[in-house]
Write a structure and sequence with these properties.
alpha/beta, 9 strands, binds uridine-5'-diphosphate, binds magnesium ion, membrane, Glycosyltransferase_2, Glycosyltransferase family 2 protein, transmembrane
């Protein structure tokens, strides 16, 4: 098998028929011996029925369909996809055709043309989001790169639209963490990565399921998962406050005894209490974020639960697991 293509699908019944046509046409035309690994991330529509019908149709020689017991999120779907992929190379793309199968083929060819490289990562040359969204993203990449460990070679603006070799997939699978942030994971595992400029198309149908709140959560998850810098914030702010308080103490003493001018002090005290109380709570919150992650990781729960896995070879279905 040359290539396994992993596609996470969540409520994509409008896009899937288009995706199947485009993907099979593109991969067949490229003469690839390929496999589609389709993961239904607990959709409430008929995404699963569409996946199964496609597998049974035999339009693609090898199809693996994984059905989650509920919605576990795209990262979980990607992990499930990777663990079922058997190709020498693995590609990841979305179900909504924003990332075109023809581009994936071009990325695969690029990887094959560069034996020294292990991964081809598509990045968006031009952004299409609103100004606020784009500015937040930009800020996130700067903060993330400055704080995260082992991710200095991260391709800016690269999504998880990628094609990579088996060893990269194995490295990702060896990271069993619960909070998965694939932009960071890809950077962390290293390997030689070639950036590949692409222009995302509009969604074929339906709408994106990401809200701004979810994106913010995703971004903070990424930082907390890859950096311990926020924990050190307390040390810095605390020491600065301590030094400032010693200086202030001597100023008060000088006022009281040198100038015989005992200060009134009430507003100062209120301000200091609020400032230090605020900082203490903020720090506690940050520690809480890490403790919560230790708690979640410590429970060792699986990242996803698959209720069935259907494998199709030439249209013959076989249920495994
Ligand atoms: N997706 C998923 N689980 C989710 C949300 C999304 O598997 O909980 C899939 C979705 O079906 C699509 C891909 O992840 O194939 C990207 O989702 P979407 O298009 O909503 O995100 P965007 O392109 O706006 O980043
Ligand atoms: Mg999309």
């Amino acid at each position: 098998m040359n290539l396994s293509v992993v596609v996470p699908c969540y409520e994509e019944h409008e896009c899937l028929p288009l995706l199947f046509d485009r993907a099979t046409a593109a991969f067949d035309a490229a003469g690839l011996d390929y496999e589609l690994v389709l993961v239904n991330d607990g959709s409430s529509d008929d995404t699963w029925q569409l996946l199964e019908r496609f597998a049974r149709s035999g339009r693609a020689n090898h199809v693996v369909c994984v059905d989650f017991s509920r919605n576990f999120g795209k990262e979980a779907a990607l992990l499930a996809g990777l663990s079922h992929a058997t190709g020498d190379a693995v590609g990841i793309m979305d179900a909504d055709l924003q990332q075109e199968p023809e581009t994936l083929v071009a990325m695969y060819r690029k990887l094959m043309a560069h034996p020294e490289a292990d991964c081809v990562a598509a990045y968006q040359e031009r952004r299409h989001e609103g100004a606020l969204h784009a500015a937040l993203k930009e800020a996130f990449y700067h903060i993330f790169k400055a704080m995260a460990d082992g991710t200095s070679k991260m391709v800016p603006d690269a999504s998880d639209f990628r094609v990579f070799r088996r060893d990269v997939a194995e490295a990702l699978l060896a990271m069993p963490e619960y909070h998965r942030f694939s932009k960071g994971l890809f950077a962390w595992v290293g390997f030689e990565t070639i950036p590949f400029a692409y222009e995302p198309s509009p969604r074929a149908a339906g709408s994106s399921k990401w809200s701004l709140r979810q994106l913010m959560r995703y971004a903070t998850d990424g930082i907390f998962a890859f950096s311990t810098v926020p924990l050190k914030l307390a040390t810095w702010v605390g020491s600065t406050a301590a030094i400032a308080s010693v200086v202030y103490f001597f100023m008060v003493l000088y006022d009281a005894f040198g100038l015989q001018n005992t200060p009134e002090g009430y507003p100062t005290i209120v301000c200091l209490i609020l400032l230090l109380g605020g900082l203490t709570l903020l720090t506690l919150g940050i520690i809480g974020e890490y403790v919560a992650r230790i708690y979640v990781e410590g429970k060792g729960r699986p990242v996803y639960i698959a209720r069935r896995v259907v494998v199709s070879e030439g249209g013959r279905l076989r249920e495994t697991g």
